[in-house]
Amino acid sequence: MFAVDLGGGALLRPIEPWQAEEFLAHIDRARAVVDPWIPWASRSTDLESARATLQRYADLQARDAGRLYGIWLDGTLVGGTMFVHFDAKAGACEIGCWLEPAGQGRGLITKAAGHLVDWAIGVRGIHRVVWQNRPENIASRNVAQRLGMRLEGVLREEFLYQGERHDTEVWSLLAPEWQGLTAGHATAPISPRRGTE
């Protein structure tokens, strides 16, 4: 299994259905802080539902329509990034993330998401990368900004959570903008072979 070194004892690598027990333990630790932002956190409450969440992403990956990657810090799963949607033919994708408190404040999401953006644009030819967050999720907004994304607008009351509607910010990055940001900098993208395992 491939792993991308994020520095400081952190690794980015795929998370798959056979890791459901580890994933569930992580989500149980993270639920209070990720549930408001990640819809499947509240649905992954036992081993069967955790495995179903991971299987859904495995099925998306098999169709080249999405992927899920975990972030391990000193051997413990603390969060992850994912292609929520991936459409190589249309040249568009959406990236999302989550992180439990033990992994916060280390820049792990920015580094991990940067690898996904680099791979999507550099290897798969994606032209447009989207990032969505609720306006009050300042940490997520900060990642979008650090990745060089631009705020396109706000989808008013688009996200339903616990019976209440919330706005969603939409950020985007185009391939030429990313290539301009990374020109002259060494990057460590997920390689085509490793990124499909």
Automatic annotation (TrEMBL):
Q: What class of enzyme is it?
A: transferase
Q: Which organism is it from?
A: Phytohabitans kaempferiae
List the InterPro entries: Acyl_CoA_acyltransferase, GNAT_dom, Ribosomal_N-acetyltransferase
GO MF terms, alphabetically ordered: acyltransferase activity
Q: What name does the UniProt record give this protein? A: GNAT family N-acetyltransferase
Please, which domain of life does this record's source organism belong to?
Bacteria
Q: Which UniProt keywords apply?
A: Acyltransferase, Transferase
Q: Which PROSITE patterns match?
A: GNAT
Gene3D superfamilies per the UniProt record, alphabetical = 3.40.630.30
| Coiled coil spans | none
Per the UniProt entry, the Enzyme Commission number(s) are: 2.3.-.-
The N-acetyltransferase domain covers: 10-176
Q: Which SUPFAM superfamilies does the entry link to? A: Acyl-CoA N-acyltransferases (Nat)
